[in-house]
Amino acid sequence: MKRIGVLTSGGDAPGMNAAINGIVDEARKHNIEVRGYLEGYAGLIANDYIELTPEVVKPHHHVGGTFIGTSRSEEFKKAEVQAGVAKQLKQDNVDGLVVIGGDGSYHGAYSLSKLGIQTIGIPGTIDNDIPLTELTLGFKTAVRNVVETVDIIMQSASSHKHLYCIEVMGRRAGDIARWTGRALDADGIIAEPGDFDVKRVKETIEKSQDMNKRYQLFIIAEGVMSAQEFKEVVERETGYPIHPLLLGHIQRGGNPVAEDRILGLDFGEHAVALLREGKTERCTAVIDNKVTDVSFEETFALIEK
Ligand code: F6P
């Protein structure tokens, strides 16, 4: 194996740069060149890449986002585009490809593997929504971001005895809401559809006020309902005034916490080891706290359920 490629795809996640660093470190040990395709699958389609060396990569190790860019490519879903990319990669003697992203990004990698390109995925998404891995890259940093931001907001809420509902990211998954709600000792956590019941919300507010708590906090997963919807229903049914807040992209930025840097390095090194062993259609994962790998198909089967 002489040359491999890497790209980041879908929403950026803190720790993606550390994973690229891990890939380059491991590849260099075995004299393998690494190409970084720019702006996700768009860079593969345009054959737009940079050579990734330690001098290029190391300054980004501790920084959030992805320095090689990312995108959500509709174009790459076309069979003829995938065939063109596979042909180009073969012509360029790119012997393997690592795709860092979420389940949508895995599907792109899987299609390329069916065209004879050795592919490995690394779960990079703040949502923690990839089956068969206990953690995805960026999740712990997103949790840190939410907790630290809401701590600040609650200082103001407490001064005014305000009642807040805060909508957090996660797409269809409720992990960010669950973890941050618990860490913040929120009065209510709405992480899955059955969790919202306006009568229960009213009781929770009253119990919290009876304890003389100076603010009330509800954390809501975006996949269940918006903060605005919560406000409308709760104000209409209970009369309590609600401050709705959409936390937004502050959750996705920021330098990765130590765990995401370490996980990035470990995932990156493991991905290259898998390529060197001739493995394909697999993605790195954490199971029982250890870095390992599972097949794309196993994860797809669980996502589709
Ligand atoms: O998948 C990561 C994520 O941040 C989700 O939590 C969120 O629903 C989505 O991406 C937001 O996407 P965009 O940045 O394109 O609005």
From TrEMBL:
Query: Cofactor(s) for this protein?
Result: Mg(2+)
What keywords would UniProt list here?
A: ATP-binding, Cytoplasm, Glycolysis, Kinase, Magnesium, Metal-binding, Nucleotide-binding, Transferase
Q: Where in the cell is it found?
A: Cytoplasm
Catalytic activity reads: beta-D-fructose 6-phosphate + ATP = beta-D-fructose 1,6-bisphosphate + ADP + H(+)
Question: Annotated pathway, please?
Answer: Carbohydrate degradation; glycolysis; D-glyceraldehyde 3-phosphate and glycerone phosphate from D-glucose: step 3/4
- Give the chief site where it resides: cytoplasm
GO MF annotation terms: 6-phosphofructokinase activity
* Phosphofructokinase domain ranges (all copies): 3-275
- The EC number(s) given in the record are 2.7.1.11
Q: What does this protein do?
A: Catalyzes the phosphorylation of D-fructose 6-phosphate to fructose 1,6-bisphosphate by ATP, the first committing step of glycolysis.
Q: What is this protein called?
A: 6-phosphofructokinase
Give the originating organism.
Answer: Ruoffia tabacinasalis
